[in-house]
Design a protein that fits this description.
This protein is mainly alpha-helical and 234 residues long. The protein contains nine helices and no strands.
Length: 234
Amino acid sequence: MLESKAGVLFIAGLGFFALAFLSNAMVPALMYRDLPEQTVEQLLRNNGNLRFQFEDLARRFPDSFTAAYGHPPEDSAGREKWLDTKSREALQLGHDVYVAEACWHCHSQFVRPVSNEDRRFGPVSKTEEYQNVLQRPVLFGTRRVGPDLCREGGRRSNDWHAVHFFKPTTLSIGSPMPEYPWLFNGAADKPNAKGLALITYVQWLGSWLESYPYYEDYQPSPIHGLAEKGKDQK
């Protein structure tokens, strides 16, 4: 076999495959086998970026937000607990919708250290980022018809995402992305519970990076306004 060019290439191919499997699968698996898988609660802990986006949804889509999540408690402590619970529910549902709608088929969630991808999509992905329940199943993606979404959180506003999910070509001329009208109650400014949850999930992607400069402090909290509105309706 080694006397022919085809045989040499065959053996070389097997060798490169084995090397790739060892370096990209076995070594990381051994390095991080004792790293516990983070829960949704742990992912949200002290994540002001996600809180900002979730509360911003309340400001931008107050009627839809109230229909999906109700009115927050009037007291501060109760409101904080309510926020934690509802944002956790939204994030988990958004992940499930993302998987069910096969968004991962055209959008990867893995910034590779090649072709200047970090200049387009943000910092190169790290192994430990995938050790959490929201990365199950692994969403590396099969191809990149659309951009990588690993660092999507905060790049665009919630309004932008709502319009884009409702009718992508409105914002991206010639986009092959399908429309998702079933995530809305008739119009782009009326996302339903699944629509709000999907936006929450997309805005979470990459939000754990403290150095990612897409966020700012948000005051006053729009959740407080919803609480007052609920009080007036009683």
